[in-house]
Design goal:
351 residues; alpha/beta; 15 strands; 8-stranded parallel β-sheet; 41% helix; Sulfite Reductase Hemoprotein, domain 1; TIM Barrel
Length: 351
């Protein structure tokens, strides 16, 4: 069992983070925030997929003023991602966001920071300090290079500004596109501070490269007990990001949400179209949130035994196959009816 690092408790909206709360799944919209309809549509898809916190980019005043309408039409907490312009942060707070992603050291004079912090404190809105290896302060790069140490020192500078203003509702991220650089930065920071950590690998690319990088980096940290929220950053749909995040949490044993499908890789003994059957099962069960393990196997002789840990499964043979549960055969049906029979048994069990 993973022993998680003890961190402070904060809240983003009504979602608890840190201090033993479940590792939360977060994503970020890929729409233009100024387009309220498209942004709300994407967030609703994310909600359906199980996303618990969503972040949106706020590049200008029009986007900031759109946040209120977006917030009214969604169910999960909304975080405004802002760079440099303190007025956008103030407007986002007025519009009712649940959190800010803003680096206080990058928004100018101390009085500007003080205004933002004061407004956030009044509304009990947490601030995420987001350090990225690609945009570190010049002096730190000259001193250390774009290293984990430079990333940690950059975070410390931002934290000091907030702590001097007696603000402690802080979450921190330290991301790089290099997996081990990211992991080391989180390890160093986690050994020194108890602020909750948002974990991810940035700019990972598309599939499969991004999935591999994210799974290794986030997985390593979670297995060491580091991480309170996670985001899988992919050049792909935000819903897919959420699906991958939950699969990482499932594999490391921290959360088990939805259907887990295990299937054989197929071989010369296989007499059915496993790929097609897996696609059909996934599609039929995609909206189920109960933790169920489902097996799709190609060998009716060995399938039930090889997948005996599955709650339900099917194994195909020539012209017919079997439906099984916990390794025991329930029924034998025609090959063409295998998937349908499996889905019926699962839905019956859930009901």
């Amino acid at each position: 069992m993973i022993e998680r690092k003890k961190t402070r408790r904060i809240y983003v909206g009504d979602v608890s983070i840190g201090d033993g709360a479940p590792v939360r799944v977060q994503s970020m919209t890929k729409t233009d925030t100024r387009d309220v309809q498209s942004t709300v549509k994407e967030i609703r898809r994310l909600e359906k997929a199980g996303c618990e916190i969503v972040r949106v980019a706020v590049p200008d005043e029009t986007a900031a003023k759109a946040l209120g309408e977006i917030k009214k039409r969604i169910k999960i907490p909304l975080i405004a991602d802002i760079h440099f312009n303190y007025k956008l942060a103030l407007e986002a707070i007025v519009q009712g966001v649940d959190g800010l992603r803003i680096n206080p050291g990058n928004i100018g004079a101390k009085w500007k920071v003080k205004e933002v912090v004061s407004a956030a404190k009044d509304r009990r809105i947490p601030i995420r300090i987001g350090v990225n290896a690609g945009s570190l302060p010049k002096d730190l790069v000259e001193k250390h290079g774009p290293t984990p140490q430079a990333m940690v020192e950059a975070a410390e500078r931002h934290i000091e500004i907030l702590e001097e203003l007696d603000f402690h509702d802080i979450k921190v991220s330290l991301k790089a596109s290099d997996v081990m650089k990211t992991v080391e930065a989180y390890r160093v920071f986690s050994s020194k501070y108890d602020y909750p950590l948002h974990v991810g690998i940035t700019e990972t690319g598309s599939v499969p490269e991004g999935v591999v990088k994210s799974s290794i980096g986030i997985g390593l940290l979670l297995l060491e007990g580091i991480g309170d929220t996670i985001r899988v950053s992919l050049t792909d749909s935000s819903v897919f990001e959420v699906n991958v995040a939950y699969e990482i949490l499932r594999v490391v044993g921290l959360r088990n949400v939805g259907v887990e499908i295990i299937s054989c890789p197929t071989c010369g003994r296989c007499e059915v179209n496993i790929k097609r059957m897996v696609r059909q099962v996934k599609k039929a069960l995609k909206n189920i949130k109960e933790p169920i393990k489902v097996a799709v196997m190609g060998c009716s002789v060995n399938g039930p035994g090889e997948a005996k840990e599955a709650d339900f499964g099917i194994a195909g043979g020539r012209a017919q196959g079997i439906v099984f549960a916990k390794g025991k055969v329930i029924k034998t049906v025609k090959e063409t009816e295998l998937v349908k029979a499996l889905i019926e048994e699962i839905r019956k069990a859930i009901a």
